[in-house]
Design a protein that fits this description.
Layout (H helix, E strand, L loop, with lengths): L10 H9 L7 E5 L7 E2 L3 E2 L14 E4 L13 E9 L13 E5 L11 E4 L3 E4 L2 E4 L21 E3 L7 H9 L4 E5 L4 E5 L4 E2 L10 E2 L2 H11 L4 E3 L7 H14 L2 E5 L10 H7 L3 E4 L4 E2 L5 E5 L2 E6 L3 H19 L9 E6 L10 E9 L6 E4 L9 H4 L3 E5 L11 E6 L12
Parallel strand pairs: 5-6, 12-15, 12-16, 13-14, 16-20, 18-22, 21-23
Antiparallel strand pairs: 1-11, 2-11, 3-10, 4-6, 4-7, 5-9, 8-9, 17-19, 19-20, 21-25, 22-23, 22-24, 24-25
Helix pairs in contact: 1-6, 3-6, 4-5
Bound molecules: adenosine monophosphate and magnesium ion.
Function: Catalyzes the insertion of molybdate into adenylated molybdopterin with the concomitant release of AMP.
Protein name: Molybdopterin molybdenumtransferase
GO molecular function: metal ion binding; molybdopterin molybdotransferase activity
């Protein structure tokens, strides 16, 4: 049998081919409390100013600034308190000469007043108080519209809804939020050597760790997946299962079987279902055989069975596809710089991704490979919060070199209180 020669493409090209596809999820409204992690489908426009009215940022007294002119320690100015309001109440009085309204944080500045004196700046005596410094117009006043004006775009279409966006949506009264729906995802672990997590080990068999790992990666993105039963390396039944999964889901992720082994059936399956293969070889390690195809507006991700390659493939290819389908503005993995803390002598013609531990102690980003790091490694994934991305070439890398890093988790393994 002649093995089909695959032509490796650069990672960048692979990601571009994925996000160029005309495959999108539908728009719909969902409730505010469920909207975290969704992508906004419309611009959100301010329907009123924030603040909505001039308000007090402190507990104190609202006065007319002109009445404070000339105040100093030997010439204290006296004010008479004519009303008392907390946040949420409005004074119906107008502040006249040398008058003041006792006002709490968040309350509307009363008619006539244009400055707020903090309690700490006064000496109180019954229903009067004195001050020893002049106040300017609008001093200690949060002005109407100083943050946002009516008509401003406060959230942009394509933004992923984060807790701050939830606060903005709540501010403007959105109980329902227009979003692009999340894709539905099937995950199929393929391999006749695979056992379920609860099964006893048998000779030649291993437990399916990729399935639960992908489930967890999807959970972190608040995506719902349908985990399929383990699929044996069998062409006919694999075609059936994948065809069914494609009908029911927007994305079908398989692990294993994408290489050129005798029982690697994914290439044949893509052919059989007439999928358009976007690429089947990438100039990267691990996971060079990772294959992405599309058929009937469904993405098919053929991730490698090797756990580290499978993890890397999800981070590099599945995530951008999901963000693209939801029309997020930002879809690409973000690369930061860090100092490599250990030699990595082995040169490779392909870009190498190494599961790694990034730290930010002493306000400086450092990164170190997280242990045994071959493509089949599992344990190193658990000790990683980042992937080092070493460009392909003829040289190795030395401790102290600045390298590119993709952060995969926000938690760290080593810390100091560096606030
Ligand atoms: P494959 O991509 O099918 O050639 O598999 C590559 C390697 O990954 C083999 O050693 C498989 O046994 C292993 N492997 C495949 N699928 C899984 C899985 N779901 N969980 C853990 N290891 C796997
Ligand atoms: Mg296999």
């Amino acid at each position: 049998m002649v093995v089909e020669k695959r032509k490796p493409i650069p990672i960048k090209e692979a990601i571009e081919r994925i996000v160029k596809q005309d495959i999108y999820t539908q728009q719909n409204n969902i409730s505010l409390e469920d909207s975290l992690g969704y992508v906004l489908a419309e611009d959100i426009v301010a329907t009123y100013d924030i603040p909505r009215f001039n308000k007090s940022p402190y507990d104190g007294f609202a006065i007319r600034s002109e009445d404070s002119a000339g105040a100093f320690s030997k010439n204290r100015k006296t004010f008479k308190v004519i009303d008392h309001i907390g946040a949420g109440t409005v004074s119906h009085k107008t502040v006249e000469e040398n008058e003041a309204v006792r006002i709490m944080t968040g309350a509307q500045i009363p008619e006539g007043a244009d400055a707020v004196v903090m309690f700490e700046q006064t000496v109180e005596n019954g229903d009067t108080f004195t001050i020893r410094k002049p106040f300017e117009e609008n001093e200690n006043v949060s002005l109407k519209g100083e943050e946002t004006k009516t008509g401003d775009i406060v959230l942009k279409k394509g933004q992923v809804i984060n807790p701050g966006a939830i606060a903005v949506l709540a501010t403007y009264g959105y109980t329902e939020v227009p979003v692009f729906l999340k894709p539905s995802i099937a995950v199929i672990a393929t391999g006749s050597e695979l056992l379920n997590v609860d099964e006893e080990l048998q000779p030649g068999k291993i437990r399916n760790s990729n399935g639960p790992m992908i489930q967890a990666l999807a959970d972190k993105m608040r995506l719902t997946i349908e985990p399929y039963s383990i699929q044996q390396d069998d062409l006919e039944s694999s075609i059936q299962v994948i065809t069914k999964a494609m009908k029911d889901h927007d994305i079908v992720i398989t692990t294993g079987g994408v290489s050129v082994g005798d029982y690697d059936f994914l290439p044949k399956i893509y052919k059989a279902i007439q999928a358009e293969v976007l690429f089947n070889k990438i100039a990267m390690r691990p996971g060079s055989v990772t294959t992405v195809a599309v058929a009937n507006k469904t993405y098919l991700f053929g991730l490698s069975g090797n756990p580290s390659a499978c993890f890397t493939g999800f981070e590099l290819f599945v995530k951008p596809a999901v963000q693209h389908m939801m029309q997020a503005k930002a879809v690409y993995p973000q690369v930061v710089k860090a100092t490599l803390m250990e030699d990595f002598a082995k040169a490779n013609p392909f870009t190498r991704f190494i599961r790694a531990t990034a730290s930010f102690t002493h306000n400086c980003a450092t990164v170190v490979p997280s242990g045994f790091n071959k493509s089949g490694a599992v344990v190193a994934i658990a000790h990683s919060n980042a992937m080092i991305m070493l460009p392909g070439g003829t040289r190795g890398f030395k401790a102290g070199h600045t390298v590119d890093v993709i952060l995969t988790e926000s938690n760290v393994f080593e810390e100091e209180l560096s606030l």
